[in-house]
Every structure is written in structure tokens, then in C-alpha cells.
Amino acid sequence: MSAPDAAAPTANPAPAGAPASDPNAPPQQGQPQAEEQDEAAEEQDRPQDAWSSRRELAHHAPPALRIGSGAGFGGALVTGDQHGVSGGRVAGDVIMGSKTEIWQLGPPAPHASGEVPAARLERLAESFVTDEGPFEALADRLREERVLVVRGAASTGRRTAALMLLRRAGAASVRSLLRDRPPAELAAQLDAEQQRAERDRAEDAPTAGPVGYVLCDLMADRTRPLREPHLLAVRERLAAHDGYLVVTVGPTAVLEEVDPVGWQPPSVAEVLTAHLTAHLRVGAPARTTCEEYAARESARLLALPVVTGFLAHDHQLREAAAFSSALARHAAGRLPEEELDAFSLGALESQVREWFEEDEAALPLRDKAFLISLAAFDGGPYALTAELSDRLYVELLRTQRPHAAADVPVFGTHIGKRLQLARAERRQAEEATEWGPVRQWVAAFRDDRAALVLLRELWTGHPSARPALVRWLRALAEDGRPLVRTRAAATTAVLAHADLPSAMALLVEEWAASPRYRHRMVAANALALAHFVGAPNVPRVLDGWSQGEDRPMRWVAIRTHALIGPERPAHTLRVLRTVIRKEYEESRRDDPPSPLDEVMVEELAGAVELLLLSEARETVLGELLATYEVDRPARDLALTGFLRACGRGAELRTDPETGLGPGPGDEERPEEEHPPGRPLVLDWYREAAADPATAWAADGLVRLWRAALGDSSYSRTALEVLRMWVLAAAHRQDVEWALAALLPALVAKEQDALRLAHLLRTMPGEDGAPPPPVAARLLTVVPTAGRPVPQPR
């Protein structure tokens, strides 16, 4: 059994200040069971082949990091978008988060309020967008009931809607009330407002018409809910003094016997158009009417690519309003185009920073943990995201309150409210599992850039959260679910791009040096994904580990080379040949010579297999043809990897001796990717032979086949692969035709013909049945004595 894993989390950590355990002490209760579980985990720890590892990345990595998705960071870019406003200048205020300036001189008044300027109400009315019918019905309800509670998500225009409702109901003036008073003090607030109004009348202050009050984001939680008696008392005050009140609350506000109005905001495009038109009316040239100029210029600006790009992402209404101002300044020549392009991503960054702020309106720690978990499992099953977010919450509590017991509520916020807070959505989707695809409820950010931006901000902007995040990711790497381990690797890849030295020291190197293959596979996946998103110096790290003496790290380097090798196939093959020669040399160095490390040799062959089945297959084939006869290590590497690649694609059982074919738990490939039963290399041969430009590749495949059949170390495995191909031909006519073209080319001498003929006559069918009829048909194309033997070019 290998050494215990130092990175594995302790099930029951000792409390701070507790004495170290005595290694000679008798085992405590429960210790034998824990040791048995560790031994069982070690026994089940097996290396996964490179082919399955790459498909796990393709299936389980976040959408923004999947291979071939075009995802990546480049300099200040996130998936092709500018990341941050760096360089240049920004004219005017660009506020995309919450900006609060507090000047407190002396003690605050017990019930303070302030009048909303009439000019501001007029400006809001010019760009306010709503459905007139339902909105007028709400205004009628406000006139009748005097008080209205509007429930909606943050940044959906609920405050503006409240102000416009008061204006539509006939309020001559609008005053804003403090939000931090308990709901039970609402009536007292209005009494204080009435006393202030009477003082104004005594001082001959002008008053005309009803007074409207707005209370935005009332703080109503389980300790102080908003109840019906509170509103009844408020209604009495308002009726007595001819006033109206609109209260806005968030999705999580606790209401008892209160019937709130659900606020349905307009679309972002509608708000952008309305605000832009209002800005353009102000800046209309003197020679044209305001309406004509605003309509014409608005249509032109809304058709710009930067605007369509902005609308393609998920944005809040406040961000649309701010973008309309920036767009108007750009139209007037006061804002450069590159700064306008950066606006969308800057708004997202501001939202992420706002999520992690610590102020009076800060999110609870559990909600922050959910946001981080959602970033790691973006597009994954919601139940899994929520489960693992609570684990992260416990780790964050350990950092924030190290001496307090972790208190995790069993039941929390409703899924809809939670996703609304995170600007995410829930939908049904197929999730790849080891038992095949299943339909699950998945959760994903509505903006596909949010996960990357959030993880980068967390790692670089909040270093105090690193210990908890590292412990969490280490625990995810131990998980038995492939999706969880892959997301741990993907999250680490994003962190490595943001800060490579820290991610390497805290996570990747520890996994790479682990004696457990599960950890090493997470390290390899993390390095491969980090390279895909543009993290620097990953190939340099791999080259160093390949040449080093640390065998676990060497294994990780080979696996990662296999995953990223198609980007630079020639260099990768040189590294693989160097490593296998090093393995041969180390085995001969012992006295007596020791056997080769089979796991390492299999890993090297798996890397060649993956390269031959990649988009760089022709370059790889040319390299193999040029080098496989140089020495025995190079020959073994080429032929072993080649035969493993030939075994891919036929939907048959795995042969226990050769290890060819799909492995246990191997998911079926999607129908559109590779039709089941079609051997991939044979399909490649058929395509290459049909095109004169690639005929050299078909001849090269034949050369490798002849070398494998003529080598006593590989002939048995090669014949077993051909048997699998024949069985596949029994189900697919196109495979039979391709095999009928290949078999004659494999005969270089009479012995080859006899070997193939014997295989076709004696091979068992599926489940021990007699040879399938296709074997007899293929036997007719094998050259016999006296027939000319074809020679590859």
C-alpha cells in the first residue's frame, strides 16, 4: 500500500491547542474503521487512461473552459472581452456598483427623511418604461389602500417604479424614509413626518396636495418581519393626513399576512432605448426637432456591434441606464470606443466586487459560499452545487471564527430566490455520467463570463479567503464523483491563471507529488485547463517534471502532455521518447535489471494514442514513421500507442489481456461525434486512401500495421485488434469495405497472408459464437500463394 496522502483532509481535526496524539497509544474507537476505509480507497486508486481523462474534461469542465470552446484569458481579456478598465482614461463618472457616501455630523434624527427633488422625478418619468394597463391598476390600488408593498429583485427598477407609482397616484411631493428602522416603527415614522409637516405649515412652508412616501429595501427578516398590523396602523395615519406609502422589499424579505405586488421589470433593451432617447433629446442640434433627432440617432446607435454585444450578456437595468449615458457620450465624441467596449465587463466586475463587500447590505457568508460554489460548478447540477457550497461555508467559518463550532442550517433560502440573487437560472439539461447521460436540474450564471471573473476576483482580491478555498478544493479532489474532481481541476486552472505561483504551491504541486493517482489526475487536468486558458509557463513546468527524478510528478507531466499535446505534437513526441528511454535506462541500471514500470509505460503509450486520435494526427503519424525504427524504446512507444489507438471506436468488450477497447465505466461517445462500432483509425485509413493528397497517411498506417504484425512482441495484440475490427464489420457495411481495402495491403510476404487467413477462419464470434459471415467474405480478399503482394509507397 502506498504512503498515506498528506493532502487528504482530516475527518475530525483536533481543536486548537490540543496535544498531539501519541503514535504509540492504542487506537481510539472508530480508528480501525477509518484505517479500513483508507485501505479500501488505496486499493481502488487506479490510473485512468488518457482517452477517458480527456473525455471527462470535455464532458465535465465548465462551459467557458471546455476544450474547443475558445475560452481563455489573454492579458486583460476574459473569453475575448477586455478584463477591467486598464489604461486610457474614463470621462465622467462610471458607477456600476453601489456607491454610497455618508457624511454624519452629530447624532442622527430618530426618524429622518428627505424630499426627492421634483426635477429628479421628472427625469425618471421621461425614461420610465412600463406596461400602462397593469401599472395604472397598481396606481388605483395605491389610491384605495394608501400603502403598497412591492417585491422584486435588486437592481430591477423597483425603486423607480415606487416613485412613479406615487407620482401616478397624485402625490404632490415624495419623501424618502430610512430603511433601517424596524417594521414596527413605520407608524411612528409617519407620525414624526406629520409633526414635521405641521411645523412647515406653521412656518408658512408651501404645501399642496397629498404627500407620498417611499421606503426602499425595508429590512424585514425573521427577527423582525413585516406584519399586517404594521400596515394597518400605517394606513390609518396615511388616510388621516392624505398620504401614500410604497415599500419595496427583496425576494428574501419575511412578510406575514401581507399581500405584496410582484414587480415585473421591463427588458434591458427597452430600458436602454428609453434612457438613450432621453439623453439624445437633451443633446439634439438646434436645426432639428428633439424627437426626430433622438429617434434617428437612437436607431443608429442601437445597431452598433458594441450595443448588440452588451445586450447579448445578462445586465441589470441600472447597468443599462449607465450604459445609455456612456453611449450618448460616445455619440458626442466624448468617450473612446475602446472604453465603451470595456463597459459590459466592467459592470460585471463591479457586481462581483459588490457581492463580496462587507457593509450593512453585505450578503450573508452562506450566500457568498453559494456564489463561489456556483462559479466552480457553473452549468452543473444545482443539488450538487448547493451541497458543496455548504462544505465551503463550513471552511469559511473556520477562517472567520476558528474557535466557534460551524453552524450550517439544514433548510435555507428557496432555490428561486437563491438563483435570483446570483443572477443565475435553473434549467433541465443532460449531464454525462458513467452510466450514460441523465437529465438533471442544472444551475448556471446568465452571463457566461461571471464564473471566471468571480473566481479571479476571489483569488486575487480576497486573499484571506484562500485557506478556506484551498481546503475546499483539496476535499473536492478526494471526491468519488468525476464531475466534482474535474471542477476542482477547472477551478484551480482559473486560479493558476490569476496567480500561478500561489496555485502551484498551494494546490497543484501537492497533488502532483501525491502517491495517489486520483490526486495526480486532478493535477494533470488542472495544468491542462490552465494552459488552455492561457496560464504562463505550463509547458516549461511539464518539461522540468518530465526530466526530474520525482516519479509521480513525471507521471503528471506525461498525462498533461497527452492532453495538451495536439497544440505542439512534434515537441510532445520528443519528450515522450526521452522519457521512455530514461525508463529503459533506469531499468537496465539495476543489478540485476528490473522490469519496466508498467504504469509509466502504459501512460506513455496512452499519450501517443491520444495524439494519434487528435486533430494533429497527420503530424503525429509523420513523426512516428520517421522515428519508430531508431531504437527499441522508440519502437515500443510507437507500436504500443498505435495499437491502443486502433482499439478505439469498436463498441465491444475490453479484452482482459490486451486492455484494448472501451474501459469499464467508459461513456458512449455522442452519436454525432463517432458512430458506434466504427474503429477510428480504420475510418482514418479509409478517408486517407480515398484522397490522393493524404494517400501517404494511408500507406503510413499500413507500415505501422506491418511492423506490429511482424514483431513477436505485438503480433498477438495486433491480431486481437483486427478481430475486433472484423466483429465491428459484422454490424457496419462501411467498416467491412474499409477492412476489405486494408487487409490486402497488410500482406508483405506469404507468412502475413497465412496469419490473416488463419485469423479469419478460426476467430470466435461475439459471445463465443462461430465466426461471423463477414469473416468468410473478407477471407476472399487476402492474397494467397501466387498473387502479387502489394507494397506500400
UniProtKB/TrEMBL annotation:
Basic and acidic residues compositional bias, start-end: 43-57
Disordered: region residues: 1-57, 653-677
Ranges annotated as biased composition (Low complexity): 1-34
Protein name: Uncharacterized protein
